[in-house]
Amino acid sequence: MGSPAHSVFFVESGAVRLMRHGRSGEEVVLHDARAGEFFAEASLDSAHYHCDAVASERTELLQVSALALRELLDADREFSRQWVTLLARQLRAVRTRVERLSLKSAAERVRHLLVSEGHGPHCEVTLDGTLKDLARNLGLTHEALYRTLAAMEKGGGIERRNSVLRLLR
User: Fold this and answer.
1) pLDDT per residue over 26-67, tens digit each?
2) Fewer Cβ atoms within 10 Å of its own Cβ: the N or the C terminal residue of the chain?
3) Where in the chain is the domain with CATH 1.10.10.10?
């Protein structure tokens, strides 16, 4: 955060957590960039990066010059259209996350995640990282998430199998 913005990055493998620190020093996760995703694109027209980027596991990145990317956006209409589509998809995901974080209870946040991002009749979500990563993304402590998942499972609301969460009702 605050360093001169010179590049946009593409995650080839692994994961990068974009974050800032809250008033009490807690991590505030802005985005978890996974394989196949770009990050730092919000700094494309900025003098400085807006947040910190931390690899949350072994990660390989491609570094794309911001200047070269801006030139390509100006020169190639089809590429520009694809870039706008990518950014629109990311914006929708961020808005969904903001909506989820506005929910009061941990159970509501878990349900929202399953309904908004799950697949199939049981709204299945396969976790990309650990439960601690999920807790950070839901704006919860990992202890609160563990208790919530256990209570939801015991109450018949969800099912957990390895890294898959399923909504049962």
Assistant:
1) 888 888 888 889 999 988 889 999 999 999 889 999 999 999
2) C
3) 106-167
**Tokens 């919000």, residue?**
42
Every domain range in the chain assigned CATH 2.60.120.10? 7-75
pTM over 0.90: no
Q: Which residues contact 141 (CB under 8 A, 6 or more apart)?
A: 135
Q: How far apart are CA 75 and CA 65, in angstroms?
A: 15
- Could you tell me if 138 and 126 are in contact, meaning their C-beta atoms sit under 8 angstroms apart? no
**Fold type of domain 7-75:** Jelly Rolls (2.60.120)
b/e burial code for range 38-55 (CB count within 10 A of at least 16 → b): bbbbbbbeeeebebbbee
- CATH class of the domain defined by 106-167: mainly alpha
SS3 annotation, 55-98: ECCCCEEEEEEHHHHHHHHHHCHHHHHHHHHHHHHHHHHHHHHH
How many angstroms separate the first and last alpha carbons of the chain? 42
pLDDT digits (tens, 9 = 90+) for 117-140: 999 999 999 998 889 889 988 989
CB 59 within 8 A of CB 16: yes
